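Hi Q.,

Before the meeting this afternoon, I wanted you to have the uracil prediction in hand. No need to reply - just skim if you have a minute. The sequence and ligand are here:
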Amino acid sequence: MGKAVRLDKFLADSGAGTRTDVKKLIQKGMVQVNGEKVKKPELKVDPENDVVELGGERLGARAEFMYYLLHKPAGYVSATEDTREKTVLELVPKDSRRNLFPVGRLDKDTEGLLLITDDGQLAHQLLSPKKHVDKTYFAVTEGKVVPEDIEKIREGVDIGDEELTLPGKLEILKTWGVQMPSASVKSTESEAKWRSEILLTIHEGRFHQVKRMMEALGKTVIYLKRMSMGPLVLPEDFPKGQCRELTKEELAALKEGR
Ligand code: URA
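Predicted structure with the ligand bound:
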């Protein structure tokens, strides 16, 4: 037996209209529950077991779990609730019948791919340190990332934890100099500061891991975006702040990796 809900709420949650709209539909005799025409909006239905039909069409044959791909913008915390900050859950379609949560955390200032679900078992497996699910990040650093850093990342770096990080994969995409105004007001000279764009793939999910790994190499991450997690890739044309259900293929690939 699932959780019983009012018929009008169930219909509204299934997208049949507002609570007022669906009450009218019920009064007009357009709704059937288990084959019987019903007239009471307050009737309790069990969404998992009762067959609710509107105009002969079955509604809300409910998926066991939901899986959403979110392009997280900066400024949102990876939590389900927060008294002061905006949370990533605010960007996901409301579904009061589910306990959705983000799978892992991205920092408030980090953008990119975040999986949101109510499938605790899958989340647990994706986050398990034993599974070593790949995560690829795009980052802009202050400080020049040099080819020797590729080797250091491959060997694992000391970020102040008991253990070195697992070997990661670093790719340098671009490096350029920025002219900074000199600290001295009188002088017209300026000094160059280096910036690099990189891709970094890691297999763990330690706290602030990418930022700490780059810090260990003497660079500061000034922009960070997660591009992929396991088989899930942030689509190029998927705008920041958007959220959509995983496709069947994405979900199958994610489950296959279990
Ligand atoms: N590493 C970080 O430092 N921050 C993130 O948000 C994700 C990975």
